[in-house]
Amino acid sequence: MNIPCVLIPILVGLICGILGYLLGKMNSKNDDSLSASLQADLDACKANTKNLNARITTLEADLAAKAKSSVQSFAATAPVTIPFDAALAANVLGKKIKENDLKIVEGIGPKIEALFNAAGINTWYDLSQASTEKLQSILDAGGENYAMHNPSTWARQALMAYQGKWKELKDWQDSLLGGKE
Asked: Per-residue b/e over 148-168, b at no fewer than 16 CB within 10 Å?
């Protein structure tokens, strides 16, 4: 069979065209299935996000309800008032102190005491009940001069003062460095 030279490029072009068409069709089907798969994944993500948002709303409501009940139960169990013995405190600490003077806590000076007072922390008991995170947020809000302090031991020191455990407080403070362990 003798094919004229002119027909070879036409046949090659025709074969390439047919192969191109077939490959395009196959690719189009793959794109359609890939597109459908991606759409299904996107729909699943949207549904999951909707479920998670609903769960977050439920958890926030639960947390708010628990916070209300915690506040109420705390108010019902008011602290027992422990009498302040100024003479014993002065004897152990070696200096005269006033009741609820936050400055006896190692690391708290007059300016930090003023910050805490402005935030509603006025007594040793108030300070003993405050979390380290709350104390740090008050310090952070006061500016960089206060934010550098570490209040991790302050609540415990204040509790010892509130409970009149002056010797224990003095011994512990002697081992602290600027209120830090």
From this structure: ebebebbbbbbbbbbebbbee
